[in-house]
Amino acid sequence: MQQSDRAQAQHTKHSSPVDEWTRGYVAPGFEPVANAFASAIQAQTALGAACTIIHRGEIVVDLQGGWREKARTQAWQCDDIALVYSLTKGLTGMAAAVAVSRGLFAYDEPVADIWPEFAAHGKGSITVGEALSEQAGLAAIDHKLTLDAIGDEETICAAIARQKPNWAPGRYSGNHAYTLGWIASELIHRRDPEGRRLPCFFNEEIAGPLGADVFLGLPDSFERERIARIQGFGLQDLFIHHTTMPWPLTFKMCLPGTLAFRTLNNPLILEGPGALDCEAFWRVGQGAAGGMASARGLAALYNAFAEGGEALGVTDEVMDTLKQGHAYPSGGLKDQILTADMYYSYGFEKPFSEWEYARTRSAFGSFAVGGSLAFADPDDGVAYAWITNQLGTGKWDDPREKIVRDAFYACLEMNA
After folding, report:
1. CA-wise closest residue to 63 among 73, 55, 53
2. How confident is the model over 247-283, as pLDDT tens digits?
3. Looking at domain 1-416, which CATH architecture does it have?
4. Long-range pairs, 233-238, Cβ under 8 A, ≥24
5. Pick from 91, 168, 270, 405: CA 20 to 30 A from residue 412's CA?
6. Are 247 and 260 contacting, i.e. CB atoms less than 8 angstroms apart?
7. The pTM is what?
């Protein structure tokens, strides 16, 4: 039986209401996690949310709460999905890990060996690992993006290949908010024997085999009533409801010409991320921001990596590489877009001194605008996913999420 099937069977056996605010299941000894999860719903700081945590192959937390739409008439159900924004980068990192394990390309191989046009403007020495670790200096591209044409990967990838880097590659890293997905998609497309691009490769080789409700490109057959709709924020909210978003980023996002503005407002000019929650974007499967997923599905995928990657054919060498992490940029960890330190690595984010989101440095995962977080910690045997449809205005460690994660690790310590 596949791990996701075992996890589902276990949940079905033990599922029960938790309290008036939350539904789902917590294993004995993890009851404080349910209380922490419910606090955001009770305080109405989260419209809705879901959290699934697997430890050593066993589901210990599987919770849902709140509502899946602004009218607050439809409760968030256990198998509902939502747009998960930059949690998608972790899905792309998984696809790259599978591709490397199969010998399609290597992390230390120059991108231009796979994609010759990419060498323009001095980009010829950028490796696959550097590009996936957001060190290529291609965060902002001059090509004007629109939602109508955002699925035209051939045209967009040609524009990325022509692009002059925003900084000297390898010197810094910076949030490749959209471009990470297209770069990975072109690499897979050029080396996959079937010529598949990232969405098809991911759906057929990762989510499909694990039976997970995680999609790059939402199929017509998926029931739209199972989608938790996003309650976003406008740029004015970053000032009125400012929390932990760096002030320099808040201002630069509003100033045309800055790198942050050019990166984060293409294709959405000052509309805010909630505008991406639409049918046109769901269908595209944009590989850095367009994933649609349930918390259960994300946890099942990360659990495959927490258990060593064997279920997906990920080699021990690739797992060791993901656990160790990519070399830091030569100029340090300061993200040239977000204006704060961030450790990007092979499509994921890793713990570092300013953000120890897991107990061990073997962890890798991704966080998203609005507060969601998903990761695997192979050394600790943890797969974690917390998602919400009400976007917060912080960077990482959203307080609604962090209180749940802290409660989980406190329980883990007590149960050891």
Report:
1. 53
2. 676 666 666 788 888 888 888 755 778 899 999 999 9
3. 3-Layer(aba) Sandwich (3.40)
4. 233/272, 233/273, 233/274, 233/391, 233/393, 234/271, 234/272, 235/270, 235/272, 237/272, 237/393, 238/393
5. 91
6. no
7. 0.93
